[in-house]
Amino acid sequence: MSYRPPVAEERTTEDRTTEDRTTEERRARADALRRRLGLLLAPIAFVALLVAPLGLDPPAHRLAAIVALAVILWVSEAIPLAATALLAPSLAVVMGVATAQDALAPIASPLIFLFLGGFMIARGLQTQGMDRRAALWLLSRDFIGGRPGRVLIALAVAGFIGSMWISNTATAAMLLPVALGLVAAIDAFVPGDQDRLHESVRRYGSGMVLALAYACSLGGMATPIGTAPNVIALDLLDRQAGIHLDFFEWMSFALPVALTCLIGLLLWIRVRYPAPIERIEGLTAAVEEQQRELGPLSRGETRSLLVFALAVIGWLAPSIIGLALGGEHPTTLWARAGLNEGIVAVLAASLLFIIPSGKGDGEPVLPWSEAIRIDWGTLYLLGGGLALGKLMFDTGLAAALADGALTLAGPIADSPLGLLALATLLMTYLTEIASNTATTSMMVPVLLAIATKLGIDPLPMILCVTLAASNAFMLPVSTPPNAIVYGSGHIRLGEMLRTGFALDLLGFFVILACGALLLPLLGLG
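Given the sequence above, the corresponding structure tokens read:
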């Protein structure tokens, strides 16, 4: 273990603590100012649009004012995002835009239950400790061999795989302590006492936590349950365009895109944040010690893993049966109707409340006391976003906004590829400053209306824009994983800005290229 003079170390720690406290205070003041401005501007915009001569039908006119109110509240986070999502359709009912039944029906969409069941399955895995065991298992593989560069890759891959099935927020929160522990272990094993070596460890640690956050966001792209924007896009495509994508069809496009972005991310991190040393003896042993502390695989972990596997099989079964038997075979038709993704998720989650954990305490794999701790706010945000999107179509507001957007786009709108590029780039940078769920709720209905007006296939544009909603890497507020790792104090804002800007551009070009080239090959566009 390296040695540094205690006084210098104390001074460095104190300076770092002061710097972190100052940064935190500045961020808190900026957040408070943004919320106050939101509370001021939202009602002003609402009233101004209500009295302005917009030339819209009365329901669309009133909904435009509600949408402006919701957007400002979402961007400013003046009130919780989920509260805004429920406020908007409620105001629509009070103001006569729609009936309560029509306005609130999307909150009971099967895709909401897909997310609900997915959250509960993830909670079951977490409650039994299967999530951390899986991460440590990956980090202890022989191919890592005590090499810090490979440790970073393994951790990013663990975050990517985990966030395909579990909330990217939960995955980042689960793996961050593992990452910080590994950085501390590497710092302890670095030979010599030169400050230069330990600064290189600090920089390497910044790269590790950045790679973790970004990989969690990328993993969320790959499956329909990976992140909330995916659910919004699937619901609107089904309801408004009559296009239904099953679990396998989504993954056939999104997984290659996400993997390509992950490879680009790891290459970029390797260049910008190199490992401080090629190989460290004893690093693998440190990870294996954490594994030993967990003990053998428990019955609860095994059973939660089996339920998770059963859910994945149910989600993929309709596509597999269709490929094996043909699209019109009676079994295929039953699978498509009966094995709806939301129903599969709820059935699998229900098993967690039935199957005992095996701990001898009479508790199931997922006790209700744990189940109620899932992210209900995200479900409300999803439901409200779906409701607002439906209202925008039903009132004609989406079509009116599409006309305005096409006028502003000018010659770009004449080219489907140009329109695809513009929409993807716009989404990439809008989600840097606003919730990706809220932004998707606003953008997708408008883009669907634009595609309908131009008579082009909406699927490539909607898929690319939805994936771009997860391509937000520059700011701590852009995504929860960014905020989690920034809060650790191991990453500076300037580092996140510079690295995130480059990866935003990389993601944009990957998504655009895949949308233009891959979708036609898959028969999806």
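Confidence is low (pLDDT under 50) at residues 1-13. Try to locate this feature in the token string yourself.
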